[in-house]
Specification:
alpha/beta; six-stranded parallel beta sheet; 2-enoyl-CoA Hydratase, Chain A, domain 1; globular; eight-stranded mixed beta sheet
Length: 591
């Protein structure tokens, strides 16, 4: 009895201590948040806005202060929103306290269209008469594309620039699946719909290679054109430098070739910036980052008080696949509800649907398309494409009045596919796991993962795919004022760059999200308005607690898989959704 009481008392004390520690942790956490939020942001005169861009750049800042707390094992990767970056650059143009922008990136985790929008914003900033100054010790190709727009491009005397051209690499799983006894049964429409190729081929098909070479060539030419205009180098000269692989060239050679203006060490750069901002040599350089400057109060034009609104609705990630712990994924019901509410809100004069999605569920795409179409019947709807708006991502844009894209956007991929794995051999022969089944009807187990489809079932699913494709091209034809035959000719699952898409009438004009907002205001004849972002951001604490396990799992997988993590994501993305898919052939990583 005495031992029982001791054990019980010890257990109670342990529970109380655990609760106390947990409560203490919460108190400390929220105290830190409150202290951060209560600190006023003071921007001094002669300050530089610094764009280091060392965090992943996402479409929209989540405004969640909990993400800034470094909690071992559960803190996710820190992120910066493109919306904040663009807003800060725009604000700095007319802020007398900001003398210029200091670019100091190295590796940049962002898509090319995202960087294109930032680059254009920096070029516009220079029109104000203020300067953009770039310094680096090691620039990736993406980083160099961005910094090349600066008035002065400075490299460390022992620095490097990774400039070698674009490369897109694919992994194929056919042999690996055969070895473990898994057969992937494929149903698709579109000779260019290459999403299923990794499961059925050992290398790219001729059609896939053709489309990849075409859109990559278009994007590379755009990057060269932008760099050429900024650095006063011909495209031929830039291609020669890329062929020579600047990664392993000396810094003085890179300067002699015109890629940079001068070579300086960091302390010399600081002195140079002090001189440009009229700061005394013995005083500290004044810089402010995007996160802090986004919170800094500035004089406004009164638009923040305007009743009329332009709604920017964000659709980011795979359609109909929910979130995977990384905070991405489009819930068709949520986005549809958001569009519907914006349609019914008389104070919202126009909608900008901001899309960064490779597609996903065909049904989910149809659900969103329907609400976009209904909204377009009552007010202007502009589709603004980010890094990628392909397949289902294009499907949901098709009903908009105007479709805009950056020049480096990847779009198109109008096609449909389905895949059904057959793991019967793996389970039966490799693992010794057998199955038995009882059906009430002949095809009750049609989507079983342990047997092959019959000829009848394959024909049934192929007809289903064909019907889905016919619906898809019909939606596009209706929205783009084309015939089905015209859409089919540029469809077939083919991926296009924005340049090709403009030629093929899949988009209307080039421009970023801010250009789309201005166009929406013009189309709705709205002069005084404020911009709102939708869907509304969920409660930070609730979302943080809900995603703790997912974030920790994601960090563990990234740590264990390393460079193979993108392959894991691709396999997971393609296998977790049943039914037919309107999705980009693969997650395109251009390096």
């Amino acid at each position: 009895m005495k031992d029982f009481l001791k054990f019980t008392l010890a257990s109670v004390i342990g529970v109380l201590l655990a609760g106390f520690v947990g409560m203490l942790l919460l108190i400390v956490t929220f105290s830190a948040i409150l202290s951060l939020s209560e600190q006023p942001v003071d921007v001094k005169d002669k300050t530089l806005l610094m764009l280091k861009l060392d965090h992943k750049i996402v479409e929209r800042s989540d405004k969640n202060p909990l993400n800034d707390l470094e909690l071992p094992g559960i803190s996710g990767p820190r992120q910066t929103g493109l919306d904040d970056i663009l807003a800060c650059i725009e604000k700095a143009k007319t802020d007398d306290r900001i003398r210029g922008i200091y670019l100091n990136p190295s590796e940049i985790d962002a898509g090319l269209a995202t960087l294109e929008e930032i680059r254009h914003a920096l070029a516009d900033f220079k029109e104000s008469g203020k300067f953009v100054y770039a310094y680096g010790e090691a620039w990736s190709q993406k980083a160099f594309y961005l910094v090349s727009v600066a008035d002065k491009v400075v490299l460390n005397p022992k620095g490097m620039i990774d400039f070698k051209g674009l490369s897109a690499q694919r992994s194929f799983f056919k042999k690996a699946l055969e070895k473990v006894g898994v057969e992937v049964q494929v149903i698709r429409h579109g000779k260019f719909k290459a999403a299923v190729e990794p499961f059925m081929l050992e290398k790219m098909s001729p059609e896939n290679r053709l489309q990849t070479e075409t859109y990559m060539g278009s994007i590379w030419n755009q990057l060269l054109a932008d760099i050429s205009a900024s650095r006063q180098l011909s495209i031929d000269e830039l291609n020669d430098l890329a062929d020579g692989v600047t990664t392993f060239q000396r810094a003085d050679y890179l300067m002699a070739q015109g890629l940079v203006d001068t070579l300086l060490y960091k302390d010399e750069v600081i002195n140079d910036l002090k001189e440009l901002t009229s700061i005394r040599e013995n005083s500290d350089l004044r810089v402010i980052d995007v996160k802090k400057y986004a919170q800094a109060p500035v004089k406004t034009d009164g638009k923040g008080l305007a009743r009329d609104k332009i709604a920017v609705i964000y659709a980011n990630g795979d359609i109909g696949m929910g979130t995977d712990g990384s905070g991405t994924g489009i819930d068709p019901e949520e986005i549809s509800r958001t569009i519907r509410e914006a349609r019914r809100d008389s104070s919202i004069k126009a909608i900008v649907l901001r899309i960064n999605s490779p597609g996903g569920s065909a049904y989910g795409s149809e659900v969103i398309w329907r609400e976009v179409k209904l909204a377009a019947e009552t007010k202007p709807v502009i589709a603004s494409m980010s890094d990628v708006a392909a397949s289902g991502g294009y499907y949901i844009a098709a009903a908009a009045h105007t479709i805009m894209a950056d020049r480096t956007t990847i779009t198109g991929s109008i096609g449909i596919f389905g895949l059904i794995p057959n793991a019967g051999e793996l389970l039966n022969d490799k693992l010794g796991i057998t199955q038995d089944v009882v059906n009430t009807n002949e095809h009750s187990d049609i989507l079983s993962l342990t047997r092959k489809l019959t000829d009848f079932e394959l024909e049934l699913l192929q007809n289903y795919i064909e019907d889905g494709y016919d619906t898809f091209i019909g939606r596009v034809a209706e929205g783009r004022k084309m015939t089905k035959e015209e859409v089919d000719a540029i469809g077939q699952g083919r991926v296009w760059s924005a340049e090709n898409a403009l030629d093929n009438r899949l988009i209307d004009l080039y421009g970023g999200v801010n250009d789309a907002i201005k166009l929406a205001a013009d189309m709705s004849e709205t002069e005084r308005y404020r911009v709102i972002q939708l869907p509304k951001i969920k409660d930070p604490l609730e979302e943080w607690l809900k995603e703790l396990s997912g974030t920790a799992r994601m960090r563990l997988l990234k740590s264990e898989l390393g460079d193979h993590y993108p392959i894991y994501k691709q396999l997971k993305s393609l296998t977790r959704t049943r039914g037919i898919l309107t999705r980009l052939p693969y997650d395109i990583q251009i390096n």
